[in-house]
Amino acid sequence: MGIKLVIFDCDLTLWDHHNVSELRLPLTKVDAETVRDADGICVRLFPGVQEVLSTLRQQGILISVASWNQPEPVFAIFDLLGLSGYFTRPKVEPHPYKERTIAALFQELAADGVPVRAEEVLYVDDRRLHLPRVREAVGPIHTLRPGVDINDLRDVLTYLNEQPPDESVPYSYTARD
Fold first, then answer.
1. How far is it, in rounded angstroms, from Cα 72 to Cα 70?
2. Quick check: is 157 in a domain?
3. What is the residue-wise DSSP string for 84-112?
4. Is the peptide bond before 90 cis (omega within 30 degrees of 0)?
């Protein structure tokens, strides 16, 4: 069956800032991987983010976001760094209930004629507290935690390449050094 959808958290998953809702707009682009807010605080993409998104897109895998943030800074970062076009129905909401945002994403995709089953989804989030709640709400999705299961976001691609094509339940994965 394989993975059909990869959902990313944003803060400390796609970029190095812990809470972009704290940033003061407007944001400006510093370089291809960095933005700066009105107070001079910089947010930089982690290495490999653009490569991972591009590769997933080339492989025909849907990409989305489930982020606990105010939407404005997240979408400003996406726009300034040219990431907006990668994401299908990105979910950025100012509450910690990722299980709600991911369940809503599943419903929206089904309404679009693109139903996905939980076992066809990989969710990448740095915060452990979200993972069991999401699994309880939507089913046995695959999960990876940056800094725990993977050392670099490009390890997502390695994980996907190691997935048995007929695997219907998640298996344990830890990136190797």
1. 6
2. yes
3. GGG-SS-EEESSS-HHHHHHHHHHHHHHT
4. no
pLDDT over threshold 60, residue 71: yes
**12-58 tens-digit pLDDT:** 999 999 999 999 999 999 999 999 999 999 999 999 999 999 999 99
How far apart are the C-alpha atoms of 118 and 23, rounded to whole Å? 33
Q: Cα(159)–Cα(166) distance, rounded to whole angstroms?
A: 15
Is 21 inside a domain boundary?
no
Query: Are the CB atoms for 8 and 165 separated by under 8 Å?
Result: no
Model pTM score: 0.91
Residues 6+ apart with CB under 8 A from 127: 9, 12, 145
Q: Which two tokens stand for residue 130?
A: 């979200």
Structural domain contains residue 29: no
